[in-house]
Amino acid sequence: MDLTRRALLRGGLAVAVWSGGPSRAGTLAAGPDGFLVLEAAPSRLALTPPPADPAETLSYAGMTPGPLLRLRKGEELKLRLVNKLAWPTSLCFPGLRAANAVAGYGGLTAPRLVPGARADIRIAPPDAGFNLYLPHSGATDAEQQGHGLFGPIVVDEPEAPDVDRDVAIILSDWSLDERGQIRDNFANPVVARGSGRKDGLVFANGAAAPLALAAGPGARVRLRLGNAATARLTNLGVEGVKTLIVAVDGQPSEPFEPLRNQFPMGPGARFELIFDMPRGANGSVRFVLRGESGGADQPLVTVAAAGEPVAARAAAARLPPNPLLPTEIALETGRRTDIVVTGGGSSPFAVNGATFTDWGPKPVVALARGAVSVFAVANRTAVVQAMRLGGHVGRILHSMDDGWEPYWRDTILVQPGRTISIAFVADNPGRWPIESAIPEHRAAGVGGWFQVG
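Above: the chain's sequence. Below: its structure in token form.
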């Protein structure tokens, strides 16, 4: 999706249909009351060429990924979610730091939406940034997301950086049987208690990777990457150019070059990069998924230098810092909470000894509004855990707690046997999850909640 091409609706809100790909029939219409109707419903998508039939999938507004929702910071987004699925669902905005009542964690922040029902959602994101919207309603989350329920949302900065192309790309993957249909192993405990579904057919937006793009020689490109695969943890390599990461998990960061020109991208993660295209006539840039265990790399996106050259810019681009986030966190005043993940294999997962099945009556911890908190997440399982902090973003602390990484995260990757600490200010009141961003792991027990205020 090239974000410079969009249809404007009332109030400056933009709803864009993804360019390319086989699922392009959907529309998102605003009613007389200004609500955009977003139907979650069964659909079909050609995941493999004929003679295979189109696969039975799920979609938002007939599209996979769902329509790109775009608004300016300070605007209100009005959505009417209609559930035409066979299960309860919700519309969750992890990473937006939205108000608790509209965050979409079904059963925790609001009731789950039962089949046939509809709900009106009015959300005014406090921050500019790039995020995903996803279902979050319980044990069937992996099945809903793994069948195509995911989409992007962009909240524009008051003053956008000077770039020639602004492109959003959603990574997804699909596990198919011999008929080209989605494999029904979502409830398999071996998968859920292991590393989750890491499937071979990779899509970039609405079609099989790689996605081919073009930009003028020397053009400045802003590339927004979101991982909507349920469990794929990948190292994303950059070839042909030096790039700067300027935002992580929806929040601007101090610009930095990825180490060895690659970076790990877990489920639910969002990264924004800015780079200048090569000036050679045949220059190109590639973003590739690095092969695991000696396997071959897989191209995700290619950008070819084509067309008229663009004049060089004097300075590297960066995003303005978020004024709502603190420049310093007073760690000496913070309260540490241990979050220990155990189990897996033949046993369900557990957080601090409790296996998550639904939101219980007791929080992991209760925090005063405005308090500094440190969650020390220990992974005592045999697989990587992707832990998500609801309603907040935090700084990953260095191993000696003597500093932090130059970016904000709402999801952290914790390797087996490791402990990662994340510091944040508990400034968003309500009941918030501390849980796995991998829906298979949530269904297998990785979840809990904390109270703010």
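Residues 376 and 421 are 4 Å apart (CA to CA).
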